[in-house]
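User
New here, help please:
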Amino acid sequence: MPPPPPRKPDPKASAASKEENIYIPSFISKRPFYAGEEGDDQTDYLEHQRLQKKKDEQSQWYDRGRKAGPAATKFRKGACENCGAMTHKAKDCLSRPRAKGAKWTGKDIQADEVIQDVKLGWDAKRDRWNGYDPKEYRNVVEEFNQMEQLRKTALAKDGTEEEQDDGDKYAEENDMSKHQSTATRQLRIREDTAKYLVNLDLESAKYDPKTRSLVDSGATADKAANLFAEEGFMRGSGDASEFEKAQRYAWEAQEKSGDTTKHLQANPTAGEFYRKKEKEEAEKKRAEREKKLKEMYGDNSQYTMPDDVKNLITESEKYVEYDESGLIKGAPKVIAKSKYPEDVYIHNHTSVWGSWWSNFQWGYECCHSVVKNSYCTGEEGKQAWEASERQRTGAILAQQEAPSDTSKENKAHEEHAAKKPANKRTAEEMMGGVTEEEMEEYRRKRTAANDPMAKFLGKDELV
């Protein structure tokens, strides 16, 4: 009997499924419950141990506006009553509501939409830009370009440009056509002391690490403040300020008209010539305007400062800096009571005006004077005021007439009492000449007569 033909190997089977290794432990070869059930077509018994390949999930979205073939020519049963499409009902139709729908007219029947089943993964569901068409941003770019073109046209007609801050307007562009980082413009020499190490006092000059410069002088008596003042003086005086003005003029000329012939390094003579010419024209316009104002409102010679006042103003080389409120920076703050002078005593007074009040009038408490800016009279003034008040109110006359009135009233009462007869009996008349002892004896006897046991008092006999 010939041997059986050899079995053809399954091309789908892997090398590990051809023969099972009995030396692999069961906890490795056994398929866990969360890896799915093992089917009949399972060729690799160690598939759950292999590195699983991740499925490529590409962001998908609905194909908007896609139609499924041409539109029908007749209305079909179950289609939308408004447009005639089979993919939705009338309440879900997005077409314009018709006066008479396609169900009754049979005209303008729309094609069926393509119903897509888009399956999104975990990342695709949370992608906020999924389904966004980048072509829609072209409208924004075109609108910006149109506005920029209109702005350039308007500036070319007017010949002017909006004023901008001169501080860091050209911070990133140090040269006419070369860009340079802001950090490299203010690098210091390694031998110099760092500005933030000059003074570590928190109340001193403030160091800005972004611009690498001192931004606030703070106190005016320390080394850091002096350094700040020196740097500010060097930047704003001498050739440094002129160089900065020339550089700014060249930049502004290039931005306005695009003319590069006034380049500060390439053609400094032309830039200086045109800058001087514009300065002279501006000065000429200012002089003409000032002349017109003088002709209209008069000369200001009458408002000039006298020479005596000018001589009082002395010059000093001491550097003093003021803040917004007009106070000297770094000077100790003095808390004022008010903006008016207080506790100022005039004309020998020991109290201020308004410290005393009487009869709806204010005055001085030290002398009771109600006349403002009067001379103080002290205690004599108080006595004089009290005497005048007694005389004004009539209190003196009342005190003088008081004794005589009292004696007259007493005499009148005595005469009236003597003339008037007594209407009531006196106590002696009511007693009738009987003494108090006799009345007491009478009361005792009367009480004993009414008492049945009174006859046994003082006797030892038994009844």
